[in-house]
Each structure stands twice: as structure tokens, then as C-alpha cells.
Design brief:
The chain is of the alpha/beta class and 178 residues long. The chain is 37% helix and 22% strand. Helix 3 crosses helix 4.
Length: 178
């Protein structure tokens, strides 16, 4: 099993954190994993992305040339990475931020997740990335919800942000419940 993932969006949308959470969950599951971030010099608003490769075997390269999974939090993320996706891959698009009439390639699966709207409903707009991850976890075979939440909570505890774990889990579960 190998999954090549790109998490992409604008600076401040938590795409690097989303990738880190996938990386830590894979590590906790004793899988091989790489995380390769890329971002512009802008703190917020510029394009940001990370490549995450998860495998049960040794990983040859940390870069996902043709991702199986694209997590796109913004229109620019779709514009930049949709064309490089592997046929049969899955594009998770933040439908709160991308034109609902947008057309996509017909050889990929598109899952529209109103991640920003869900996060706003939960009074946690900065956690749209977690809502998106909930949908990815439900739709993919990477982790169970419990495996992912346990790993995520452990990660945030180590970052000194464990006090937010209850709300973080609610955001993941909102995306998972779609």
C-alpha cells in the first residue's frame, strides 16, 4: 500500500498542519511516511502545500509527482495540482471556497466538502483543515477515526495545545459525518 497525498491551500488554512497530522497518524500506525512542506515567503495568503507519502514499504522519494489524494483548500490549490493527479485519484475540495460550478477532470473522483462552512458552524473557522481531514479519513482506508483522533490529540498535547482537543475532535467528526 502506498498513498501519495498533497495538502494544498493558502497560508493560514492549516495545510501544513493537516499534512503533519497525517504523517503522525501514519507514524503511530508504524507505517513508513515522509512529509515535505513548501510555502512562499508570505505568512498568510500565499500558496502553501505539503507532500505526504504513506506506505507499508520503504519510500523511495518524498515528493508526490502524481498524488492519489489531493486535499485542496482553495481555488488556487485545485488550479495548481488537479492536472498532476494520478488517474483514479481522489480530489477533496473545500466547496466553501471553490466555485460550485467548477468542472473537474472526469478520470478522478471529486469529493466536495464544505470545510470552512462546517468549521464556522462549530465556531472554529481556523479548523476547516480538520473538518476536511475528517472527510478524508472516512472516505479513505488510511486510518480509523479513533486511530486518527488519538494520534491528533497526542500531537497537539506535545505542542502544548491539548486544551483544544475536544473542539478539534468535533471538527474532525463533523467532516467524518458528511
Amino acid at each position: 500500500m502506498i498513498r501519495r497525498v498533497i495538502c494544498a491551500g493558502l497560508g493560514g488554512q492549516g495545510v501544513l498542519t493537516a499534512g503533519k497530522l497525517l504523517m503522525y497518524a501514519a507514524y503511530d500506525k508504524e507505517l513508513s511516511v515522509t512529509w515535505f512542506p513548501s510555502y512562499g515567503n508570505e505568512m498568510r495568503g500565499g500558496n502553501a502545500n505539503c507532500n505526504v507519502i504513506i506506505s507499508d514499504k520503504k519510500i523511495a522519494t518524498p515528493y508526490a509527482d502524481h498524488p492519489d489524494i489531493l486535499i485542496a483548500m482553495s481555488t488556487s490549490a485545485v488550479d495548481i495540482y488537479e492536472g498532476s493527479m494520478a488517474p483514479g485519484g481522489t480530489l477533496y475540495v473545500n466547496s466553501s471556497m471553490v466555485d460550485p460550478d467548477r468542472e473537474y477532470r472526469d478520470d478522478i473522483k471529486v469529493v466536495k466538502v464544505p470545510a470552512t462552512d462546517l468549521a464556522i458552524e462549530l465556531k472554529s473557522e481556523r479548523n476547516a483543515n480538520l473538518c476536511m481531514l475528517g472527510s478524508v479519513i472516512k472516505d479513505s482506508d488510511l486510518f480509523s477515526l479513533k486511530e486518527f483522533e488519538d494520534s491528533m490529540c497526542s500531537y497537539f498535547e506535545k505542542q502544548g495545545k491539548g486544551r483544544f482537543n475536544e473542539g478539534n475532535c468535533k471538527c474532525v467528526e463533523a467532516g467524518y459525518g458528511l
